[in-house]
Design goal:
InterPro entries: Acyl-CoA_Oxase/DH_mid-dom_sf (IPR046373), AcylCo_DH-like_C (IPR036250), AcylCoA_DH/oxidase_NM_dom_sf (IPR009100). The protein has 196 residues and is an alpha+beta fold. It folds into two domains: 2-83, Butyryl-CoA Dehydrogenase, subunit A, domain 2, CATH 2.40.110; 89-190. It has a four-stranded antiparallel beta sheet with strand order 1-2-6-5, with no helix packed on it. A three-stranded antiparallel beta sheet has the order 3-4-7, with no helix packed on it. The protein has helices at 89-123, 140-190, and strands spanning 2-5, 8-15, 26-32, 38-44, 50-52, 69-76, 81-83. It has two helices and seven strands. The longest helix is centred in the C-terminal third of the chain and has 51 residues, at 140-190. α1 (89-123) packs antiparallel against α2. It is flat, with a radius of gyration of 25 Å.
């Protein structure tokens, strides 16, 4: 809960799954104010009252830093608070960008699976039981599996690139729209009103 405290705010609470925060300088936290408005705050993790916990069992994942954040009466300045509205163009764009980061991470994992499969086939693999191939490398069944993994990896990479390009174009369009609105407001303010 974000509450007003003079000319700034205070926040107390717990954020679970604070992925990356243990390695970050800042944390973005979704909060509600006393009126129930959906807001986001971006605060330094070194600020008094912020505790980063290593309480996430990564299930084999390394370096996710997905532990919790404990917030106890943390001071939040006005310029660190922003409206959180997923129905705006910027809100939808940011949501899509976060999803793209996750998919790009998964794409990297798939690339490593392909590299591991190739390495295993070349160094340890044996042909399947009834294969006439002299080595795993020459076994058509193994080639098919590694080929399918590789094709899927290339397809995922292409989708990530295409979606990243689409998000770049949408960011440019959002920025251009903001500039047009600013220019229109400036023009409207600078022109004297006609009297009838």
């Amino acid at each position: 809960m974000l509450r007003r405290d003079g000319d700034h705010h205070r926040v107390t609470g717990r954020k679970y799954y604070s992925t990356g925060t243990a390695f970050a300088d800042f944390a973005r936290i979704n909060v509600e104010n006393e009126q129930g408005d959906a807001l986001a705050v971006i605060i330094p993790v070194a600020r008094g009252g912020v505790r980063v916990l290593d309480d996430w069992d990564g299930m084999g994942q390394r370096m996710t830093a997905s532990g919790s954040l404990l917030l106890h009466d943390v001071q939040v300045f006005a310029d660190e608070v922003a409206a959180r509205d997923g129905s705006t163009l910027v809100g939808r764009h940011c949501g899509a960008l976060r999803q793209l980061h996750l998919v790009a991470t998964a794409a990297g994992i798939v690339r490593n699976v392909v590299a591991d499969a190739r390495r295993y086939v070349l160094t340890h693999g044996r042909p399947v039981l009834h294969s006439s191939a002299p080595s795993a490398r020459d076994d058509h069944f193994i080639q098919q599996i590694v080929g399918e993994l590789s094709a899927h990896s290339h397809a995922i990479d292409a989708l990530v690139r295409d979606n990243a390009a689409a998000l770049d174009r949408s960011a440019d369009a959002i920025e251009a729209g903001a500039r047009m609105r600013t220019n229109a407001c400036s023009t409207a303010r600078s022109r004297p009103h006609a009297r009838s």
